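Sample intake — DNA-binding LacI/PurR family transcriptional regulator
Collected from: Pseudonocardia parietis
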Amino acid sequence: MSGPVNLADVARRAGVSQATASRALSGHPHVAGTTRERVWEAARALEYVVSPDASGLARGTTGRIAVVVPHLARWWFGAALEGLSEVLREAGRDLLLYRLGDAVSRQAFFDELPTRRRADAVVLLGFGVDERERERLDRIGVGIVAAGTRVGSHPSVSIDEYAAGRQAMDHLVHLGHRRIGMIVAADPEVDLAQPAGRSSAYRAALADAGITPDPALTVTVSWSAEDGARAMGELLGSPDPPTAVYAHSDEIALGAVRTLRRSGLRVPEDVSVIGIDDHPLAATTDLSTVAQPVGEQGDLAGRMVLAGLAGEPVDPVITVPTRLVIRGSSGRPPAPRPANRRP
């Protein structure tokens, strides 16, 4: 089809009037389910983008900001969402929350994105996108802001993942540890652009200290305390277990501590543990960590959105600082055992 697709094209393909097509796409309750689905199928097939003029949703006039998250139960997303929602509330903006869910739901969300222009801007919280998803985002013609990650050339606010990893690793190396394990956190189902900074920091810190990395001391698991506990078990099963463990998140670090204590090992006298994030439980459990200001990232993302809608200049990249928090889970390595001597 030549030329831009309009609502009449969608209505014609679906076999309904333009008024019915408009009501179906806007979620009007007085449209039969089968009719609504037929209109949506037509819109998806034609890659129809809702016209601001036709719908009355001129940019900056809906009063709504769409926020997309991969998870709701995890602490990081809740803390970032709280900071973001407070800024939007004070500005009189409504928040539309979308949870991606599994890989199938994620694909469906991005497939339908061009027809869902119901907001003035979109904020992506804590996940990256692939090239196809980025193209779908660009098609809706509104401002995009990312928090906790970077998405192409769109404005973003996040920590320096590498710098955070180096703070954790340099602390362990400074304490005198040479056998340092790493538990990598991965969420391949939804985090397509998992940042590599925390892993590269591990390798760089070892290289700077003249330590040859041992592949047996790196374990990759999903992002949960239970998997952290399992990973620690694998590390303890290696021929030469680590004297310290660097975990990609505090949840994973806390799982590792549980396994160590259940194995009769002392933390940090036998094995030191450090994480990243400064989860609310980190202080309670005396966990050493690298703190990141999660709520502040949500707050800044909200301010970036509002500035863009007001036509004000927006910093393309904001990097918030992290800081090392030393608590009771990290200490010097245990003294080497004396070699057995024959009488």
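Post-analysis note: Residues 131 and 152 are 9 Å apart (CA to CA).
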